[in-house]
Amino acid sequence: MLDFEQLLVLLTLVSGGVWVFDRFRRRRRSPDAAVSWWVDLGRSLFPVILAVLVIRSFIIEPFRIPSGSMLPTLAAGDFILVDKFSYGLRLPVIHQLIVPVGDPSRGDVTVFRYPEDPAQDYIKRIVGVPGDTLTYRDKRLIINGEPLEIERLGEWSGDDAFNLLRERLGGDWHEMMVHQSRDDRQFTFTVPEDEYFVMGDNRDRSSDSRFWGTVPRDHLVGRAFFIWLSWNGGPNWSRMADVIE
């Protein structure tokens, strides 16, 4: 079954073909000649579909957050915008890099194609870039021998099982949370070339690189930067129009 991106490319090709066909035939027929409905529809839709394809493939793409693995940064029902330009321009469907622009950084909240099933999109925070040696011990990240700065903020939403913390990663602070009684799955790992290590901000309730490995560079879709709507059974006004940190 076609996914939305494949369907969009197919519609662009079909409507574009109709547009070219109409332009070619227009030179040979009378200006007053009747036009078939499918020709009129195709040539009308082509510029709209092409614009959507270009914006979605190269500039900005919307996504919806399905779970709480990125709490407190992102909640289930958040609708976000993802900057697809910052990691380079890739062709739709085949994902071939055509214009390198920039590299992902530690601390980026990124959407990527799940390595074990590229048809699924996941969202996590990049905590390790190529060459980094990561250690996770006592629920604290150590990168290249330097423990990250953390500050305790209290409990998460009144639940004393969860500690709400601030963590300094990539030069910027972001909020994260840990469960007091969950095992911290200690590890030490060196990130391979062209791979990225990702973790959820809800550290003890996230399926991430600790379980299924690193994310290849060509699986990265873009950097999440804005919550434009939050709706989970109703509107959550406090989360709307938030910048993602």
Q: What pattern of helices and strands is seen along the backbone? A: HHEEEEEEEEEEEEEEHEEE
Class derived from helix and strand content: alpha+beta
How many individual β-strands?
17
Remind me, CATH topology of the largest domain? Umud Fragment, subunit A
Question: Kindly state the mean pLDDT as a whole number?
Answer: 91
Outline the biggest β-sheet: 8 strands, antiparallel
Rg, rounded, reads 22 Å
Low-confidence stretches: none
The helix content is: 10-25%
GO molecular function: serine-type endopeptidase activity; signal peptidase activity
Keywords: Hydrolase, Membrane, Protease, Transmembrane, Transmembrane helix
Family: Belongs to the peptidase S26 family.
EC number: 3.4.21.89
